[in-house]
Design goal:
four-stranded mixed β-sheet, single chain, about 350 residues, alpha+beta
Length: about 350
């Protein structure tokens, strides 16, 4: 009897151990499946975010130009893309900064003497505008354009400063902040250039002939509209407490921000200045609250994505910030090099349908 009891106990012990092992193995498999699922989800989200961020780099894909009108320089601007770039240079966003470096093929000391002027004119190509390439109309010029200050009223393109012109050439004025003639670099303030803009020429601003005291323009052209409510007016721009740390860390990670602004406070003041005008589309700005596409808006400045909200009282609050990861740029540049190599071999990309 004792022997039978011992055998039964041993068998039950073995079964228990097997059961425990089976439960543990099942739990491990379940945990593994959950971890793998979370990793796959995060990788998919990271891939989607990377593609979204890479889409902002399309404005950097500068068209090739040769001959007489080949660019003399490229702009390294605080405005990473068209959205957020002010409608005019000069007094609208005076804290904007743009570093212009002359092409290496040009004679040295082209900029010598420019530091004796307070302001300069810059002539450039609207390389990021839809007149140049990749449009639904094949780059056709527009006769009239919708003016933001007129809430969408259409005006002849050549009666405005729109980038959508028959020949997409721009003219802007800015302050001469610093000149390094030896390196061929000038830093210009308050100018409305998108990052990567091809520069065609720089000319000094000469007050006696460039400033015309008797000049007149329509009421809607001034810094603020005359005789009506300013449609782009923002009452105040605040920074939420929860956005302070992301702004600081994003500034630290952004080479562009650190090049153009001495510290994070100067960068934040620039961001607030940009958002002191309503930069949303005409449709989004005028839509009823329940018909707007977004609750939170984004603008990319110095390769930092700034998140903000706008209240019905026209008050802006910066709620977050995120530096565009370096690998986004690296992958984009690598893809461009590969595409250029294929084109050099006579291979061309298939058209998208």
């Amino acid at each position: 009897v004792v022997a039978v009891v011992v055998v039964v106990v041993v068998v039950m012990s073995i079964d228990r151990e097997r059961t425990v092992v089976a439960v543990v193995v099942a739990a491990l498999f379940a945990a593994h499946a959950r971890v793998v699922g979370r990793l796959k989800s995060r990788l998919a989200a990271a891939s989607t975010e990377k593609q979204r961020l890479q889409s902002i780099l399309r404005v950097r894909d500068v068209p090739k130009t040769t001959g007489m009108f080949a660019p003399i320089a490229r702009a390294r601007s605080a405005f990473s893309r068209r959205n957020g770039t002010p409608r005019q240079g000069g007094a609208l966003v005076p804290r904007a900064r743009c570093e212009v470096k002359m092409e290496a093929r040009l004679p040295r000391h082209l900029l010598e003497g420019l530091d004796e002027y307070t302001h300069c004119w810059v002539i450039y190509v609207f390389h990021a505008n839809t007149n140049l390439a990749g449009t639904k109309t094949g780059g056709a010029a527009k006769g009239k354009v919708a003016v933001p200050r007129l809430d969408g009223k259409r005006v002849g393109a050549l009666a405005t400063r729109t980038p959508h012109r028959p020949i997409p050439v721009g003219l802007s004025v800015g302050t001469v902040e610093s000149v390094d003639a030896e390196r061929g670099v000038v830093v210009i303030g308050g100018i409305d250039l998108v990052d990567g803009t091809p520069i065609l020429d720089i000319k000094p601003y000469v007050p006696f002939c460039d400033s015309i005291a008797s000049a007149k323009a329509p009421d809607w052209v001034g810094k603020e509209a005359v005789g009506k409510d300013e449609p782009l007016k923002i009452i105040r721009v605040d920074v939420a407490e929860r956005a302070e740390a992301p702004l600081a860390s994003s500034y630290a990670r952004s080479a562009a921000a650190k090049t153009l602004y001495p510290d994070v406070s100067a960068f934040v003041e620039f961001c607030k200045e940009v958002l002191s005008y309503d930069i949303r589309s005409i449709r989004e700005r005028n839509a009823d609250v329940d018909k707007r596409k977004f609750d939170t808006y984004r603008v990319i400045l110095c390769d930092v994505e700034i998140e903000y909200t706008i209240s019905e009282e026209r008050k802006v609050e910066i709620t977050g910030a995120k530096a565009v990861p370096r690998e986004v740029f690296d992958d984009w540049e690598r893809a461009k090099v590969e595409q250029q190599a294929r084109e050099a071999l006579g291979e061309h990309p298939k058209p998208k349908h």
